[in-house]
Amino acid sequence: MKSSISKAGLAIGSALLLAACSGGGGGSTDASSTGTGGGVTASKVTPTPTPTPTPYGPVLSGSIDPVSTALTQAAGSKDLNEFGTELTAVSTSAQTAATTLGRANKPAAVATDQTALVAALKQLAKDATTVRSDIKSRGVCALSSAGAELGASQGLADVSAALGKLTAAGYSTTFAAPQLPKQQSRSLDNGTMVSKGKLRGDGEFKVDNGSKTDAVVSLVLNGKAVHSMFVAKGQKADIQGVEDGTYDVYVSQGADWDSATKAFTQSCAFTKFEDNFPFETGRTSTSWSITLQPVVDGNAKTNDVDPNSFPQL
Predict the structure, then answer these.
(1) Any idea what DSSP says for residue 282?
(2) What is the reported pTM?
C-alpha cells in the first residue's frame, strides 16, 4: 500500500512540472518572476577584501616601547624588592616583543637585523629572569649589584646593537638603554674595625678566615654589635681589648663591601655561632679563636641567620 501511494505522488508531481514548462496561453517565461511556477532569483556575491598588512615601522615601535618602559622603571627602583618585581615586567615585555616581531612582515632589506633583534629580546628575557633568581638566592644582595648585573647582560647589549642597525636602515624607535651601575669589587684592609667599642678590656678574639670570601665578624652583646672586624679571605686577624661579657658571634660573608651600607653586595651569607663566648678577667685573661672554614674535628657549629634579623653594624 505504501509503495503505490508513493508512485501516485510522483506522477502528479510530473504532471505539474510539465504544465509549468509549457508555453500555452502566451504566458511569460521570465526567470526573474516569483510565483508558484519555481522561478529563480539571482544574487550578487561581494568578494572579501584582503587585509592590508600593518607597516613594519609601527609594529617595531609598538613591540619595543613596552620593553623600554619596563627597563626605565626597573632602573628607577627604590629598593631591591621593587627591582625584583620590575624584572618580571622586563622579562615579560621582552618575550612578548620577540614573539610579535617573529611573526611580523618585515622588509627583505632588514630581515637579518630583525632576526638578530628577536634573538636578542629572547636573551634579554632570560637575563632578567636570571637576575631575579640571583636576588632570591642572594647571589646579588643589594640594589646596586642587581642593577649592575642587568646592565652587563648580553641580551641588553644585543638589543641595543640590533636596534641601532634598524635605525640606520630607517626604522627608528624610542629605545634607550637605561643608566645602570657598574659592578664593583670593593674591600677593606684586613683587620679593619667596621664598628668599634671601647676595647678597654683584657680579652682577645682571633679569627682565621681560610674561606674564599671576605667576612665581617661581630661580637654581639645583648643583641647589639659591639665590635665588628673585617677579615679578608685567606687571612687572619684579631681583636685586642675585649671587655668582659658573654658575647654571641655573628658572621657576614660575601664580595664587594659597601662601607656606606656596611654590607656585602654579592654572594651574601649570614651565620651565627651556636655557642656563645664568655670573656672574664681574673688571674688570666680570656682568649678565643675561631675559624670560618670547615675543619676536621671542629667543635663549633654555625646556623644560618635571616639577614633581616642580623644585628646592625
Answers:
(1) S
(2) 0.78
- Hey, what's the cell of 253? 660573608
Going from N- to C-terminal start, the domains of the chain cover: 56-168, 193-309
Tens digits of residue pLDDT in 124-151:
999 999 999 999 999 999 999 999 999 9
CA distance 73 to 222: 41
C-alpha cell at position 114: 630583525
The contacts of residue 52 (CB under 8 Å, 6+ apart) are none
CATH superfamily of 193-309: Immunoglobulins (2.60.40.10)
Report the interhelical angle of 143-151 vs 56-75 (nearest 10°): 150
Distance between CA atoms of residues 203 and 279, nearest Å? 6
Strands (E), the chain: 193-195, 203-209, 214-221, 224-231, 235-242, 245-258, 263-273, 277-279, 287-291, 302-304
DSSP-derived 3-state class of residue 166? helix
d(CA 218, CA 301): 16
Q: What is the DSSP string of 143-165?
A: HHHHHHHHHT-HHHHHHHHHHHH
Mean pLDDT of 170-174: 94
Residue 269 pairs in a beta bridge with: 253
pLDDT digits 0-9 by tens, 249-286 = 999 999 999 999 999 999 999 999 999 999 998 878 89
Given a contact cutoff of 8 angstroms between Cβ atoms, the answer to whether 140 and 266 are in contact is yes
Give strand pairing partners of 227.
219
C-alpha dihedral over 286, 292, 298, 302, to 10 degrees?
Answer: 90
Nearest partner of 170 among 67, 56, 54, 53, judged by Cα: 56
Mean pLDDT of 287-301: 88
- Measured distance CA(178)–CA(93) in Å, rounded: 16
User: Could you tell me whether strands 224-231 and 214-221 are parallel, antiparallel, or unpaired per DSSP bridges?
Assistant: antiparallel
- State residue 47's pLDDT score: 65
CA distances from residue 219 to 111, 126, 224, 268, 275 in whole angstroms, order as listed: 63, 42, 8, 19, 12
Residue 24 has pLDDT above 60, yes or no: no
